[in-house]
Structure formats: structure tokens, C-alpha cells
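User: I'm curious whether this sequence folds into something compact or stays loose and floppy. Could you predict its structure so I can see for myself?
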Amino acid sequence: MTSQNDKRKFPPKWVFSLYFAEGFPYSLVRQISTVFFKDYGASLEWVGFTSVFGLPYVFKFLWSPLIDNYSTKKKWLILIQSILTLLICLVSALCFMPNPLAFVGISFLLISFLSATNDIASDGYYLEALEKEEQSRFVGYQSLSYRIALILGGGGIVYLSSKIKFQGAFFVSALIFGAVLIFHLRFLPEVEKEKESFFALIKSISKTKLLIALISIAAIVYFFANNKEVLINLPQYPIIPYSGIFIIFALILFPLLFPVIKRKLKENKSKYSESFIAYLDRDKMAIFIIFLVLYRLGESLILNMLYPMLKTIGFQRGDYGIIYGTFGVASSILGGIVGGSLISKFGLKRVAWYLVLAQNVPNLFYAFLAKIYEGNLVMTGTKFFVTSAFVVIETFGAGLGTSFFMVLIMRSTLKEFKASNMATATGIMNIASSMVGFFSGALARTAGFSMFFVITYILTIPSMLLLPFLPFLDENQREEKNS
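Assistant: Here's the prediction. I'll summarize afterward.
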């Protein structure tokens, strides 16, 4: 990089497009999938099971070395974004089918896998193309671009689907993402030399493994094609919700197993093992890990069941797209900014309870809405205003709570292992958050929506009980501002 580049005040245009391209497909599969499945007649269990689309974002670290070791970040981006554009077009075409849920679900899973891979390549490209000073200076712009993509790809596309149906909305999505791809083809500079080619990667995959993979995929497709009732009822089989509960409890019990894991990792002697041990082998880390697992369980349950609940009180898809997908997301962004300012001014420990309660107490607002309005599909001005206000307040509180745990996680990282420690902490939290979706539908159907949202609040109580015992709250003012 030149010294002239170091002095520039504004980032290159590709910073905006790069992180817009990160957020846009994520919003399609994570924000729209619950709406799409519900409006196409899926059961509550299937709507909850759409959280499976979030798993590639949790486990993307498993294949991230491939992006570093083969080809270049730019070539990866162009390849992945080309396929993503075609897949979004495919989803648009599938929407013309009488019952497209199975095929669209598979497409969403592929989109989420490619979108997670696109995240890896985008972040790597950003780090390769900019000097360290610029990386820090322009981080606000990348965050802004990502959040604009969430608003447009979530609220905007959902609202559009209420006017021109899902097939039209996904086609517009493909055009938007295709325009970003064309921009990258034309203006994304090459910033690194190719290491190994794509062909070297293909050659590195043994024919035996490839054959086994293809046979396995074919067998699964054949089985579900001939047993459609199994596919339709899949999330209702006890193994699905129980597996989600089992994994959450396994994460809670993980600190008890750490001594055994530690001995095994020490034998490995890799950099990853070293960072993992250094991160977890400290005082009060068992409490911290349990807190990470529990902290967002209630909030994650809400994400899957909010739209189905709002439908039972008369809200339509377009209303949801505007209220939650646009104003709700914007409110959460504002909450994050306000929370960061409060932490900077007063210190994390002094505002911890306020931020956490602001995230958790509004869950009860939805329980109140379901109690007084459920089954009443008549939309009045009062109902629309009250519900919209509750959604904005709840998402603002979620933004405040997010600012708390992000600063807490950043403080927990060690200086020499910041990136890997951050990935470990957020990975643990995101696995738990994804797993609750596996039983959210069954819970909502069994308990009813009003009690369901009361339960989401009850699930926040264990994490709040751990607050007084958490490490990393007592930091001096300078460290808080740096965070």
C-alpha cells in the first residue's frame, strides 16, 4: 500500500460492496426463511427448524483454511458470488411450483453454505487489501454496509414479496446481487498472488472420498423422494428437538470436561490448540462459558416464532417486512450504538444489569400481545401502533444487550490470540442459539404463543443469575473505551 492510501479518509468503494454482499444473502436465508416457510404452509416445527440454515455460519472455520491456501480471495469471491446469484434465481423459479418447500429448503442450505464461505473470503480480502491502520479506520463503513444489506435483504425483500410474490422478490434479489457481482468483476483489484490453483484443490480431494460423498447425497435424495411423509414430518420426530436440547446441555457441561480436552490438545501442539487452551485455562472461565451458552437462548427463540405469532393477530407479510425487517433492524442498530456509548461513558460493570434487562424484559411484551390479540385477525390502528411500538422497543433492547456481550467477549480475548479467541466465544454462543430453533416450533405449539414468550423470558433468568460472578466486568475506563 502506498503512503497516500494510508492517509485517505474514506474507504475504497469495494469496501461497501464487499460487506453488502456479506449481509444480503445472510438476510435472505436467516430473515426470510421463517416467513417463506410459514406462508407456504409449513408447520411451526419446520419454521423453527429453519435455524439449521445458520449452522454453516457457525462452522465456517472448518473450511476456512481452503480459502487461504488455494487460489486468491478475489477469485473465490467471484466464483462464490456467481453461484449465489444463480441459486437465488433458482429459488425464484422454484417458487412457481405448487409445493416448493423441500427444493427451496435445499437451496437455502446451499446459499447459507456459500454465503458463509463468502464471509471468509470477504474478511480475508479486506485484511489483504488494506493496511492495519486502514482496517481499523474503515471498520464502521463495513458495519454500515452489512446492516444496510440486512434491512434491504430482510425487510425490503419481505415487503416486496407481499406486492409481487416471492418469485418476483427473489428475482429482484438476484438482480441486486448480480449487480454487486458485476461491480466486483470490474472494480475489485487483485491484491495477492495465487498460491495453489482451484484445480490443485480438486486434485487434492481423493476420488474415493468424492465417490462416497456423491453416493451418500444420491441415497439421501432417493430416500426422501420416495418417503415424502418423512421429510414433511422431519422436525416433528423427537430426535430433532431432543438433539437440540442435548447439544445445549453438552455445551453447558463442557467446562467440566475441559481438563480432559486440555490434556488431549496439549499433545497436539498446534497454534489452534495453544490459543484454545490459553483462552479457557483461566479463572472463572467455566462460569463465562456457561453464560455464553445461556445468554441468547430466549432471544433466539423469539427470532423463529415472532412472525408466526404476528400472523395469528392479523399481521401480513408486508407489515412484518416494514415493522420488523426495516424499523426493527434499524432499532437494533441504534440500540447497539447507544449501548456502546453507555459502556464507554459509565463502564461495563455499572451498566451491565440495565443492558441485560433491556434485552430480556421486552420478551414479555410479545406474551402480552399474544394474550390479548391471538386469533383476532381484524387489524385496527391501535393494534398496529401498539404492536409496532413493542417490536421497536424489543429490538432496541436486543441491540443494547448485544453491545454488552460483544464488549464482554472482546475483553475476554488474549492479546496474542484475539481472532481465534473471538471465533471460539462467538462459535459457542451461536451453536447454542441455532440449537434452540430445533425445539422452538414444538414448544410454541405445545405451550401456545403467550406462554411461549413467557418461557423465553424464563430462559434468560439463569444467565442473569450468573452476572455477579462473571469475569472481565472490572476494567478501567481506558480499556473500556478501547473495547
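Summary: Confidence is low (pLDDT under 50) at residues 1-6, 477-483. The radius of gyration is 23 Å.
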